[in-house]
Design a protein that fits this description.
Keywords: DNA-binding. InterPro entries: Cro/C1-type_HTH, Lambda_DNA-bd_dom_sf. Residues 5-59 form the HTH cro/C1-type domain. It is a single chain. The chain is mostly helical and 66 residues long. The protein has a single domain (2-55), classed as lambda repressor-like DNA-binding domains (434 Repressor (Amino-terminal Domain), Orthogonal Bundle). It has 5 helices and 2 strands. The chain has helices spanning 5-11, 16-23, 27-34, 42-51, 56-59, and strands at 2-3, 60-61. It has a two-stranded antiparallel sheet. Helix 2 (16-23) packs across helix 3 (27-34). The relative contact order is 0.22.
């Protein structure tokens, strides 16, 4: 699943470790999500969306047209 997590994190000048701490996950989990190797769980996707004050759909793109 494509996502904007790396861009959003960079805009705030946060390291992967800083973002991981804010989300209560490992830095490796953040890296796996950013690189598309792992999709976040739904609860984690909601935490990410709340952290960036965005809708899940604004951060993650499953490739399906609306």
């Amino acid at each position: 699943m494509k996502n904007r997590l790396k861009v959003l994190r960079a805009e705030r000048d946060w390291s992967q470790a800083e973002l991981a701490g804010r989300l209560d996950v490992s830095r490796q989990a953040v890296n796996a999500i950013e690189t598309g190797k792992h999709d976040p769980s739904l609860p984690l996707a909601f935490r990410i969306a709340r952290l960036f004050d965005m809708k899940i759909e604004e951060i993650f793109d499953d490739g399906e047209a609306a």
